[in-house]
UniProtKB/TrEMBL annotation:
<feature type="region of interest" description="Disordered">
    <location>
        <begin position="404"/>
        <end position="428"/>
    </location>
</feature>
<dbReference type="Pfam" id="PF01593">
    <property type="entry name" value="Amino_oxidase"/>
</dbReference>
<dbReference type="InterPro" id="IPR036188">
    <property type="entry name" value="FAD/NAD-bd_sf"/>
</dbReference>
<protein>
    <submittedName>
        <fullName>NAD(P)/FAD-dependent oxidoreductase</fullName>
        <ecNumber>1.-.-.-</ecNumber>
    </submittedName>
</protein>
<dbReference type="InterPro" id="IPR002937">
    <property type="entry name" value="Amino_oxidase"/>
</dbReference>
<dbReference type="GO" id="GO:0016491">
    <property type="term" value="F:oxidoreductase activity"/>
</dbReference>
<feature type="domain" description="Amine oxidase">
    <location>
        <begin position="14"/>
        <end position="401"/>
    </location>
</feature>
<keyword id="KW-0560">Oxidoreductase</keyword>
Length: 428
């Protein structure tokens, strides 16, 4: 650990790494200090009996604008179809975006998730979110998501059978009290992108960014205990710096920066099971049924076979309440049309403080420059997502560079593109 650095970033999640890679690319001497033993923050993956297990079910959505900063090809993605299976009257029905699988159009058109008129309303809602300019979406009156969907003609059956469980799995809340503005941006990303899993697990997204930083500049397993403009106190000593970026989770950020308001009230529990083989022939999420505990369940290996060491199927099933495996085993089995005895329980994980809430009034770009060389970034500064974390890191890097490399100066980083897909570019 250096005693001095130009910039110290506290936290190697996507926000901190997005800031650090941009600062390094602009020629800053940047060091990242991370309390955990891995880069990637809440994107964490471990091996359990040979299976890749992410810390809670999450996916990379290529509709996020900041995914442009990643080398998606190098992640070796495996893809889910955009859509979901819904169980109604003892049968599983497919609801699939016909642009991704035109042959699924008849099944989707006849799926029991509402009348033809309601399906047309869903198509109109998707077209609006996907293709209107973002400024127009953000100019619309802000409401709770449930009310916005109601006004779009999507109350009742489409909401209960499809939209509520689908969105609950992403927003980690099922009352749909989330801001309609965030709903619009999120739905836009589903319309414009695909969702999938990297070959080496979600943690590899963060690791890809960390690998772009100069060797020796990411310090893992070193917790920061205090920050001030000008210095960082760590378990291993003090580092002085021209700029300090706090890129921790919201709760730690609020502890380290008194006066900062940030929290992550959303939580999720994910149960992992193994099946001898997948019961399905397509990689598609299965939605929970109204009144059940599950919000969704997915055979991860249908999308990304590399999550399994030997061809057996890995199933991830999530609940908003902190359930026990025994509470959901039958529901998981029903979701996939298998007997409960076929499911071998691999592990379960409850992630408290998984995400900030994005309720109205949504402040999309909360301040990142706290003055005196102190900065803050993270998903609590933008939206509670991979996109929000990366966008906040990019915004923070710009703020730091405005101070350390004033625009137009001889070493202005803006003379070159600020981000590359390869290694960091040093500005002479
Ligand atoms: C189960 C789950 C499912 C999710 N699903 C999705 C999804 O499908 N799509 C999506 O877009 N988003 C999803 N998210 C949200 C997304 O993962 C987060 O919004 C994003 O990763 C947050 O990144 P961050 O950099 O802001 O924070 P973090 O990832 O929390 O990074 C903060 C880093 O700071 C470190 N740190 C904390 N305290 C200290 C300290 N004192 N000293 C040093 N280091 C410290 C932490 O160890 C961590 O590495 C999900 C989150 C969870 C938990």
């Amino acid at each position: 650990m250096p005693a001095r650095a130009e910039v110290v970033v506290v936290g190697a999640g996507l926000a901190g790494l997005s800031a650090a890679t941009r600062l390094a690319a602009a020629g800053c001497d940047v060091h990242v200090v991370e309390g955990a033993g891995h880069a990637g923050g809440r994107l964490a993956t471990e091996r359990v009996d040979g299976f890749l297990v992410d810390r809670g079910f999450q996916v990379l959505n290529t509709g996020y604008p900041r995914v442009a900063d990643l080398d998606v090809d190098a992640l070796g993605m495996g893809w889910f179809l955009t859509g979901a299976r819904v169980w109604v009257d003892g049968r599983a029905h497919r609801v699939v975006d016909p642009r991704s699988r035109p042959t699924a159009l008849p099944a989707t058109a006849t799926a029991p998730i509402g009348s033809l008129r309601e399906k047309a309303a869903l198509a109109a809602f998707s077209a609006r979110a996907g293709y209107l300019p973002v400024e127009r979406l953000l100019a619309a009156p802000e409401r709770a998501a449930a009310e916005a969907l109601h006004r779009a003609g999507l109350a009742g059956t489409p909401l209960d059978r499809f939209l509520r469980p689908f969105l609950a799995g992403v927003l980690l809340e099922d009352r749909l009290e989330t801001s309609s503005r965030y709903l619009d941006l999120l739905w836009r990303s589903f319309v414009r992108g695909r969702i999938g899993l990297p070959a080496r697990g979600m943690q590899s997204v963060g690791e890809q960014l960390a690998d772009r930083l100069p060797a020796g500049s990411v310090h893992l397993g070193c917790r920061v205990t205090g920050v001030a403009g000008g210095a960082v106190e760590t378990e291993l000593g003090r580092i002085t710096a021209d700029a300090v970026v706090v890129a921790t989770d919201p709760t730690t950020a609020a502890d380290l920066l008194p006066g900062l308001s940030a929290s992550a009230p959303r939580q999720v529990t994910t149960h992992l099971h193994v099946l001898p083989s997948s019961p399905w022939d397509e990689p598609l999420l299965v939605l929970g049924r109204p009144g059940g505990e599950l919000v969704n369940s997915a055979v991860l290996t249908d999308a990304q076979p590399r999550y399994s060491p030997d061809g057996r199927a890995l199933v991830a099933s999530s609940t908003l309440a902190p359930t026990r495996e025994a509470d959901v085993r039958e529901e998981v089995a029903r979701a996939h049309g298998v007997a409960p005895s076929e499911l071998a329980h691999l592990t379960s994980v409850t992630v408290p403080r998984a995400q900030p809430a994005a309720v109205p009034p949504l402040e999309l770009r909360r301040p990142v420059d706290l003055g005196n060389g102190l900065y803050v970034c993270g998903d609590h500064r933008d939206t509670p997502s991979i996109q929000g974390a990366m966008a906040s890191g990019a915004r923070t890097a710009q703020a730091v560079l405005r101070r350390l490399r004033p625009a137009g100066g001889p070493t202005s980083p803006w003379r070159r593109p600020p981000m590359s897909d390869g290694g960091p570019r040093v500005v002479p």
